[in-house]
Amino acid sequence: MRIALTLLLSTSLTAGAALAQTPAKAPCPNPDAIGLSRTVEIDTTGGPGFGIEHFKQHDFLRLNEVILTFDDGPWPHNTASVLKTLAEHCIKATFFPIGKHAVWYPEILKEVAAAGHSIGSHTWSHKNLAGMPKEKALEEIEKGVSAVAYALGKPGAPFFRFPVLKHPPELVTYLGERNIGIFSTDMDSFDFKMRTPERVIESVMAKLKKFGKGIVLLHDFQAHTAEALPELLKQLKANGYKIVHMKAKDQVKTVAQFDQVIAKEEVKLPTVSTQPTSSVVRTINE
Length: 286
Known about the structure:
By secondary structure, the protein is α/β, with parallel strands linked by helices. It contains 10 helices and 10 strands. The strands form 2 sheets. Strands 1, 3, 4, 5, 8, 9 and 10 form a 7-stranded parallel sheet that branches. It has a 3-stranded parallel sheet with strand order 2-7-6, with helices on one face.
């Protein structure tokens, strides 16, 4: 009996210590916020695929659960607007930035990271990898991964989304060998085709009503998506949907060769001028 009581006490103390180490979720100051329902950790070993549009093995969402994902950023004004709305609603999302955009606007991507969102990658220049020579396709993938790390000053999550949701089998295998998870979608909002916030909202809500849950593909690159987000979240809450956040178990491992390529390129915004600074700027009075 004494041994049993000792074991019970020890187990209770261990459980209590574990609970004490788990940080309590801070209350959301906005009473109208949808809030975060739960956070899941994703182990990307072997390159699992998510999103029933292409991958049906790991359908982990419960009924009425929604994951928000944003592609093609970071972009001035639009990404900031999305971040502001997400913060007001105390929720987190997953971003899949284009490598070029990440290097053009590293300060914006750093704001995404500072807000606690997950950041994967979406290739270097958003080219359709289907039909592309494998060497070029791998360069697109790896430069995108390295560009995000370069912009953030640290590696992002081992999360990847193929442009235009085209998944060449040999590249799916490659990402698996790299232990990078592949994210398709449960429902594409097609917000890049919608030209008003109202149509974006209608598209997402109609598909959620049909499927009941899902990983939703949106674009922080699109101004009308940023404008739609406050009302979309309001409608999600009113209809009983809950927001889930995905966090990666580990950071992505970049490839040194492509880290060096990105560092050497020091990609600048695509201005036309090629004149040296001495020709563009000269002191006329001092």
